[in-house]
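User: Reviewer 2 asked us to show a designed sequence for the structure in our supplementary figure. I'm pasting the structure tokens here. Could you produce the per-position amino acids so we can include them in the response letter?
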């Protein structure tokens, strides 16, 4: 639901207010001497203004034939605006800001009529300045806020909010917590005294009565005009209007009778306006949900575009499509491309190709050497046929639609490139088979003449590849199901959404290169190193929102292989500047090259041929790989010289196999005779590529907004014939929605607390809540830095640590420089350092600092694997450039990490966390990380903080395993966490979750001496289609873990999905709702308008963007046994972002899920090179796998080693 409160901008502008007043100008109130006069003024002005406005609005609406419930919505909104303006005209000189506060508190409504937030009270500043907001009050303090506001503005009393009272009554250094009973009692006493003093002032009562009367008049006028104008209403609606009228009379009686002070305040605070307006808008059948409360509002534009279905057909017809190879081609598909055949068995490196064929007469018309030229094809093995590539299937279906266009009766059909086809009308037939489909177009090569008499039989002519397409009716889909879904969440809306989405994407899929849900034209590219290029495009998806259909469009960018010589990819894979530098490949180089080239499609340059995929490389170079052609042994280099008159320039390079990975079906081509086919996405991205991609794709919010609008224009939705055929029309302007901006929490340190500004703060003059003590540590230097620089850095670090509350007793750590042990690897140096620290008699080693030359991942992984799995001592890496500069801010950041690694506690939040602070609550985050492209067969890691995330192997990762990580909080502040990690087979769910959870629950008990009474579970890495499968699987795992702890133990669980991989972007509609970079402010939450009204989900901006356009995180509450309100879930999630321990900024998504991500990434280093085996992490062994995964050292299991 789109939430938008009545815009108070013009009301607060006093000049505008004066211009708005009627001839009965009530701004001069000097002659008014009592409350009665003021009340009458409010009533008269509001009644006149309301009646005049409502009458005009209803007349206009009826003239447009928009009567009925639509008129009710419109006139109510206009009435509120008019009345607020009228009330403001009489209170300006008397500074009665409480009226404005009450109106804003009670009259927050949407354009569609849904009341949203009745408790965001704005209190105006003194001295007649009505344009500034001084205090934002929250739901819990609305009653006190009304009293404070009235007293402050009308009687010059000084308001003492609850927070101020706490600060005043708490002795210096006290912390108000569960144990400080005496302090809490004194605070409560002070609050009660403050309330009594405020309520005692009659001016408060007078002001509240004025507001209450104004509210009565608003609703009374609305009811009267509705009746007088004969607005068309149903019987049910008329009954509700009568109920409203009765309620108005009761309200008026309350005000006139003059209830006791506190009760009058309660009447207003409970928002009779809200209650009445909810009744009004329920006349439209709108579901009035309990949306989150608190915070100010902000207007945002989002990259969603409205989709209307006014001309949609009543039914859409779905057909099932099967694409198969033609039978004759399938039998002959063993033949490879032009090249040299081979029969080696290893598809990546292979044995030396040897061909021993029988003599055959060469057909003079056949210019190629195929398998049949050198040996008889082996007997075909019976094996399941591999599925055809999706891109090929799409091309075949398109070719069928072209070749057999007449068979479809002029109906525009669309398809998803796989097995689904949709038509806006029923096709002339229920099922049909189309044969001889040629996706490559007409063949330029005619068949050879038949063999002459007496000639040897010739193998059958292999013409163009052809396919068979079978289409049959599957189901009929009603487009009305979408409308039904708006009022009934049980309606299955997915079939119609899928059909409309395919129709909306069909034209783009025909014209552009498709990657997932993204389209790329290859016209706008940026060259990257290593034969790659960055390409821009756009993302597109249909979404169902609150009673409407939207199209999400966003800028997209990805990396493609540049259509150049294959050599451009080979050289960087081997770290060579030119092909002449390559003289023989080691086994490791061969594996790396085979991995880098695998599945890349190439086109031979020595003759015309279609593109072929690379399956591996040869063990020997071209000049040493021998083949037997008609009894003559020759090298492949000699063969190409003889057959094609091509003299290879680099015969010392290996060959690529473009035939098949099956033994005996290989087909070899020299690397220099291959060009990379265009339009191939590159998944092999290194750190340098990533950095360049970020630089090129980062756009300020305004620029990205303009790019998106331009992409919608270029997509041509207005002239899309397929959209028209399915009755869809896409708006060309961004959707506007309303958001709320939550206040940040105060971050508490040992000596001071600070309210972050813009999602950030600093460590200056602050001391950690719990500072650790470091007595025994060492420094390993592997970088080109002097010992003098290192000593200077250590001095600065020790100084900053002292200021921050981290005690470093040993200011002269033991140092080992690589120059002393030339040829030693960093692991050996760390072992030496550890041994010497143990011999110092200063206690166990606590930290090994390693100074690296740069940020290279290789050395970093070696360092972490050694410290985390072998030595059992935390490590801290420092890049050499920071050693030389030794800036205070950098040293402060290092102190943040070291303190947490040594079991300290940097900071806590001053405010209570919803649910967590009131009862023992464990917060879990979980993540599963999968091997990146180019990581070989290493398994992925599963991490479980208590929050969860599972990432899956990317395309081309095969059956490589995943890493699961689970982390869990250990205290009521959610400031300390522990993690458990495990390797597992690639899967969406976390397979060892019960055992990991049991271990974490025991750690929580050991830390707090209490069992968790509530569980909040943040789960990352789940696609929308998997939501409920994962919920069922992992809720069962949670229940199993509870039972493992003790019988009867079953704490309630709130299960929240965390999604960072989405394409929603929002842009502030005005500068006051933006940060200094033009991004959405941290704390902004969107839970209406663009989200599904039947789901408990929201978008949250948890951080302030550093570069480009900020990206919110999308949270979906799938299961909530704790019965948390939307506000509590949102506030908890947002505030957790301020507990991230290694920086003084809020982070973009919930800290438990973030920690799980870090733990999974760290555990990836625990896999030994080439591992394909089972987890050996504690008791988390998997009997079905055999990953070579080293266990986290016992001494670090209850330490935040991953920070």
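Assistant: Here is a per-position design you can include in the supplement:
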């Amino acid at each position: 639901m789109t939430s938008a409160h009545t815009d108070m901008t013009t009301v607060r502008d006093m000049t505008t207010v004066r211009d708005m007043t009627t001839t009965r100008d009530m701004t001069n109130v000097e002659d008014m001497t009592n409350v009665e006069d003021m009340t009458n003024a409010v009533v008269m002005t509001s009644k006149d203004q309301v009646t005049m406005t409502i009458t005009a609005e209803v007349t206009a609406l009826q003239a447009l034939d928009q009567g009925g419930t639509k008129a009710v919505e419109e006139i109510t909104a206009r009435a509120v605006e008019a009345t607020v303006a009228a009330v403001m005209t009489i209170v300006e000189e008397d500074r009665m800001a409480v009226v404005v506060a009450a109106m804003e508190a009670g009259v927050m409504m949407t354009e569609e009529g849904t009341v949203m937030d009745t408790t965001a009270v704005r209190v105006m500043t003194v001295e007649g300045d009505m344009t500034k907001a001084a205090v934002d009050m929250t739901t819990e303090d609305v009653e006190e806020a009304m009293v404070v506001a009235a007293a402050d503005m009308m009687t010059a009393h000084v308001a003492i909010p609850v927070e101020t009272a706490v600060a005043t009554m708490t002795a210096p250094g006290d912390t108000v917590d569960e144990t400080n009973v005496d302090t809490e009692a004194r605070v409560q006493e002070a609050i009660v005294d403050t309330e009594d003093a405020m309520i005692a002032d009659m001016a408060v009562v007078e002001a509240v009565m004025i507001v209450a009367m104004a509210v009565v008049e608003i609703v009374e006028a609305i009811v009267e005009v509705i009746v007088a104008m004969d607005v068309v209403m149903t019987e049910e609606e008329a009954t509700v209007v009568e109920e409203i009228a009765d309620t108005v009379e009761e309200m008026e009686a309350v005000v006139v009778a003059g209830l006791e002070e506190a009760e009058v305040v309660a009447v207003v605070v409970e928002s009779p306006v809200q209650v009445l307006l909810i009744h009004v808008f329920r006349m439209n059948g709108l579901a009035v949900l309990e949306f989150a409360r608190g915070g100010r509002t902000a207007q945002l534009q989002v990259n969603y575009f409205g989709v209307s279905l006014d001309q949609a057909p009543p039914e859409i017809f779905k057909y099932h499509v099967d694409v198969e190879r033609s039978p004759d081609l399938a039998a002959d598909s063993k033949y490879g491309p032009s090249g040299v055949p081979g029969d080696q068995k290893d598809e990546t490196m292979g044995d030396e190709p040897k061909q021993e064929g029988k003599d055959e007469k060469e057909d003079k018309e056949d210019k190629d050497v195929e398998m049949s030229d050198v040996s008889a094809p082996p007997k075909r093995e019976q094996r399941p046929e591999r599925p055809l590539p999706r891109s090929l299937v799409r091309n075949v279906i398109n070719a069928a639609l072209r070749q057999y266009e007449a068979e479809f009766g002029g109906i525009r059909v669309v398809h998803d490139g796989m097995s689904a086809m949709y038509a806006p009308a029923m096709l002339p037939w229920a099922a049909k088979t189309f044969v001889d489909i040629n996706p490559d177009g007409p063949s330029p090569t005619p068949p050879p003449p038949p063999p002459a008499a007496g000639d040897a039989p010739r193998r059958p002519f292999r013409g163009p590849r052809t396919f068979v397409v079978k289409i049959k009716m599957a189901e009929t889909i009603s487009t009305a199901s979408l409308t039904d879904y708006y009022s009934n969440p049980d309606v299955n809306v997915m079939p119609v959404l899928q059909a409309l989405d395919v129709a909306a994407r069909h034209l783009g899929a025909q014209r552009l290169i498709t990657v997932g849900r993204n389209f790329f034209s290859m016209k706008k590219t940026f060259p990257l190193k290593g034969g790659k290029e960055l390409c821009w495009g756009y993302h597109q998806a249909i979404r169902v929102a609150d009673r409407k259909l939207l199209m999400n469009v966003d800028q997209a960018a990805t990396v493609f292989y540049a259509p150049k010589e294959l050599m451009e990819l080979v050289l960087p894979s081997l770290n060579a500047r030119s092909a002449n530098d390559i003289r023989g490949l080691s086994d490791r180089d061969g594996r790396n090259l085979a991995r880098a080239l695998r599945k890349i499609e190439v086109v031979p340059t020595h003759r015309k041929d279609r593109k072929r995929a690379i399956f591996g490389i040869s063990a020997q170079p071209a000049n040493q790989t021998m083949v037997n052609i008609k009894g003559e042994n020759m090298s492949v280099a000699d063969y190409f010289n003889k057959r094609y008159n091509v003299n290879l320039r680099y015969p010392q390079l290996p060959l690529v196999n473009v035939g098949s990975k099956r033994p005996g079906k290989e087909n070899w081509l020299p690397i220099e005779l291959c060009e990379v086919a265009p339009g191939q996405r590159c998944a092999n991205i290194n750190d340098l590529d990533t950095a360049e991609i970020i630089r090129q794709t980062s756009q300020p919010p305004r620029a990205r907004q303009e790019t998106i609008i331009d992409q919608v224009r270029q997509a041509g939705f207005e002239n899309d014939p397929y959209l028209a055929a399915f009755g869809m029309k896409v708006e060309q302007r961004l959707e506007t929605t309303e958001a709320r901006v939550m206040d940040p929490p105060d971050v508490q340190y040992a000596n001071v607390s600070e309210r972050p500004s813009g999602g950030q703060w600093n460590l200056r003059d602050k001391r950690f809540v719990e500072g650790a003590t470091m007595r025994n540590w060492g420094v390993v230097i592997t970088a080109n830095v002097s010992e003098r620089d290192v000593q200077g850095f250590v001095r600065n670090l020790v100084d900053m640590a002292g200021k921050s509350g981290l005690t470093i007793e040993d200011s002269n750590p033991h140092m080992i420089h690589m120059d002393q042990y030339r040829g030693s690897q960093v692991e050996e140096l760390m072992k030496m350092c550890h041994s010497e620290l143990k011999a110092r008699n200063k206690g166990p080693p606590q930290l090994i600092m390693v100074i690296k030359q740069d940020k290279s991942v290789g050395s970093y992984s070696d360092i972490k694997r050694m410290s985390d799995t072998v030595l059992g001592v935390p490590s801290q890496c420092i890049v050499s450039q920071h050693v030389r500069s030794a800036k205070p801010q950098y040293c402060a950041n290092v102190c943040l990490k070291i303190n947490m690694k040594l079991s300290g506690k940097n900071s806590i939040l001053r405010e209570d966390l919803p649910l967590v602070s009131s009862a023992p609550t464990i917060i879990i985050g979980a993540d599963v990380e999968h091997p990146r492209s180019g990581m070989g067969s290493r398994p992925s890691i599963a991490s479980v903080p208590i929050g969860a995330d599972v990432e899956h192997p990317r395309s081309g990762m095969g059956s490589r395993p995943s890493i699961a990580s689970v982390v869990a909080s250990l205290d009521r502040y959610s400031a300390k966490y522990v993690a458990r990690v495990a390797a597992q087979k690639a899967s969406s769910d976390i397979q060892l979750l019960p055992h990991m959870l049991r271990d974490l629950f025991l750690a929580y008990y050991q830390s707090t001496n209490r069992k968790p009474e509530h569980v909040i579970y943040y789960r990352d890495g789940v696609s929308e289609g998997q939501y409920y499968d994962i919920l069922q699987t992992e809720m069962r795992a949670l229940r199993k873990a509870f039972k493992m702890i003790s019988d009867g133990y079953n704490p309630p669980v709130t299960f929240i999905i965390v999604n960072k991989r989405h394409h929603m972007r929002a842009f502030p509609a005005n500068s006051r709702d933006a940060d200094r970079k033009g991004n959405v402010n941290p704390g902004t939450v969107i839970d209406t308008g663009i989200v599904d009204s039947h789901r408990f989900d929201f978008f949250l901006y948890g951080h302030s963007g550093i570069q480009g356009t900020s990206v919110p995180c999308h949270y979906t509450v799938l299961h909530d046994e704790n019965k948390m309100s939307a506000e509590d879930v949102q506030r908890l999630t947002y505030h957790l972002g301020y507990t991230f321990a290694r920086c003084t900024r809020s982070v973009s998504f919930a800290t438990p899920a973030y920690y799980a991500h870090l733990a999974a990434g760290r555990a990836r280093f625990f896999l030994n090179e080439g591992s394909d085996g089972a987890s050996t992490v504690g008791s988390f062994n998997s009997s079905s796998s055999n990953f070579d995964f080293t266990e986290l050292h016992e001494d670090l299991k209850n330490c935040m080693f991953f920070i």
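For the response letter, you might also mention the following. Residues 912-1058+1149-1196 form a domain with the Nucleotidyltransferase; domain 5 fold (CATH 3.30.420.10). Residues 746 and 755 are 4 Å apart (CA to CA).
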